[in-house]
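fyi for ur records
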Amino acid sequence: MQQNETLPSTKIVATFGPACRDEKVMLEMVKNGVSCFRLNTAHSTPEELDYLVSVREKFRRDYGRTVALMVDLKGPELRAILKEDSLEIKEGQEYTVSETTASQIRIAVKGIIKILVPGDHVLFMDGKISTVVKASAGDQCTIVAENSGNLRNNARMNVPGRYIPLGILQERDRMYLDLSIKNGIEFVALSFVQNRDEIDSVHDLIVQQNGDTRIVAKIETQQAMNNLQGIILASDSLMVARGDLGVEMPLHEVTVSQKRIIRESHSYGVSTIVATQMLESMVENESATRAEISDVTNAIMDDADALMLSEETAIGKYPLQAVKTLRETALFVEQNSPPYPEPENFYGSRITYSMARAARVIAGESRAHRIVAVTGTGNTARMLSSVRPGCEIIGVTASTITAGQINILRSVTPYLLENPGTDMTPVQIINELLSSNVLIKGERIVFVSGNQRYLFSGTSRVSLLNVGVPVGRGYPEGKSYSGKAGKGGVFIGSWSDLSSDKKWIENYEAFVIRGRLERKILAMIRDAGKTLISNAIVFEEPPVGTELFIDAEIGSIYR
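which gave:
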């Protein structure tokens, strides 16, 4: 990220489609905060995935931009199969449902009828038609319509609250999963997740192919809400998929469920994405409604890591403007939000977690500009993000897939080391970030890593540093100062070298003095509003004219 860009801590996921297929539009979207492009496999082709992979590589190679890809698997679905193109449903009338063609409505999936009991609701066409089971026997049941409507052939069905044994992946999903692993896709999103075992089964498939793809569990069924804790513990991230969730439960319950999903996920340090109809009016209109901005605001204040745009960027008329709207809203909301709580039920390495908490405290107390975290798998960056430190986290990694995966974590900006050495030191990493304009000379940072020998493995060290080459350190007085070595700027030496200068207090703005000073000299410098480092240990003698920075809070001098 360039220094002149101001992006929110909340990340933006944009759905790929005809509206944003142009490479220039996609680049502008990334510049305005999009960290991940989602491919909806229900409306896409493998060729479109190939195109996204090529764009991702080009953005990284030509523009130094890290962008992640998410392949959203269509997942299992129940469909109503009719004898004709449609069936007119009338309120109060009874209809037969079975696995055979003898009934009015057929279900192609075996075993579904057996799990239905009187009182169960069966919904069609995303809840537009609602029915209730009156009787069930063998492979046939009778349903009663609760409202009227025209039921289309092959329309979707939902049975809220019932576990539907469909399996988590269909044949087409397996194909896209294999392609995702092969192409190093950062995330796959699993649709209609019902329990932890389904996620574990997909995780095992990824492991068997030696893949690094992470799993996003879409919470869109009542079964998923019933098994939320297990799903959280098995997933890398959760998506609040409000579209189907609003079919599975009354609409007035969706918002409370969203808050619960985010709250419980964060309590375990697992990231969340809020999706569906964030700015739906912008599919056709250039500006959002007040209600949509309120919805976005609440999602951010609920502590979501990312917000997702669907039709707004896939087929909408104003994809870039929709992204800008999210960016502007998020920036304002984050500046006016209360502090977020730390995870309560954190799972994983307690040592790394304690390092993350220590980094947050140090960054806050020292008013550090940024946290720089060296991470191999992304785990350190995830833990730092989860404690919500209130400043930017630069996730330094040598892995391209890890760089993309941490890019949807709140407050985390990835930095990819192109040619890291096995013995790379913190100073070398900081110097690279400085030369790439990620850091600025004089900034105070918290550096989080493994030990000196294995920076990318086993987080065990937290350091408070300034950006630049250390010149010396000592006991500070006054305010921080930036200026040149020599008269008019910084004096470095002993009091005996300075005392012969009758106008010494006027000739310098800052003093780095070896050894101790008498109280009256300290008082003179303090009263004059000058900067002082006493009892200084000077590592090197900077030539006159060298640009120096004195951090008067930690007593360090840098060039």
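The chain has a mean pLDDT of 92. thats all i got for now
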